[in-house]
Amino acid sequence: MRRSLLPILLTAVGLSTAAFAAPDAANVGIVNFSSCISDSKLGKQEQASFESLKKQMTTMLEDTEKQLNEISAKFNDADFLDGLSPEAEEELKVKFRTLNEELSRYQNQYYQVLNQANMRIIQTLSASINGAAEKVAKNKNLSMVLNKDACFFYSPALEITPLIVTEMDRNYDQDGKKQAAAAAPAEAAPVEKSEVKAK
């Protein structure tokens, strides 16, 4: 009885294994998400925007901290305080409290704004990489494209990151041309009106 069941069990295991078998390795592409961000035109633009925003927020924080430190130094200077009228001293205290509140608000905004900007950038780049991966997969007859971070190991032959970056750059350039074309009629319109008036 056991002998007759064994081939049936092996057949069943073989069928279930075949059903869940991974696709042929040649039909899989691996993408390095980080490289797509650092090497693509869109990624570079988004990183530059993020750094610009970060610099702007940091400058606001540093300016407020500098003013607070200056006022704090005045409060520690007994000679300076002796020369102030009670009204002027109270005014300085109010300014110190106001700057403290501003600094706290800027610090909260700093992390909020940067986190939101970072999330938006990741979403934008993910969408771009997804679109590029779909096109590359279609052109190379790939049944699957995986993020490098999802793999413990993969053969370098499966790497398609340069193709993805090229496709992203092509899309970036096309979007840039579309935006330029859309902006051109709006810029040209006033010129045409002035030419009509001149005639």
Q: Please, could you describe this protein's structure?
A:
- This protein has 199 residues and is mostly helical.
- The protein has a domain at 28-166: Skp domain (Protein Binding, DinI Protein, Chain A, 2-Layer Sandwich).
- The chain is built from six helices and two strands; from the N terminus they run αβααααβα.
- The chain has a two-stranded parallel sheet.
Ordered list of secondary-structure elements with their pairings:
Blueprint: H1 2-19, E1 28-31, H2 33-39, H3 41-75, H4 78-82, H5 86-139, E2 144-147, H6 161-198
CA-atom Rg in angstroms = 31 Å
Strand content: under 5%
- Return the average pLDDT rounded to an integer: 82
Which strand order spans the largest sheet, edge to edge or round the barrel?
Answer: 1-2
Structural class: mainly alpha
Largest sheet, in brief, is: 2 strands, parallel
State the low-pLDDT regions, or none: 1-21, 192-199
- CATH homologous superfamily assignment of the domain at 28-166: Skp domain
State the helicity in percent bands. over 70%
* Pattern of helices and strands: HEHHHHEH
N/C terminus separation = 104 Å
**Shape assignment:** elongated
Query: What is the CATH architecture descriptor of the domain at 28-166?
Result: 2-Layer Sandwich
The CATH topology label of the domain at 28-166 is Protein Binding, DinI Protein, Chain A
Total of DSSP H or I helical runs spanning 4+ residues: 6
The CATH class label of the domain at 28-166 is Alpha Beta
How many DSSP-defined strands? 2
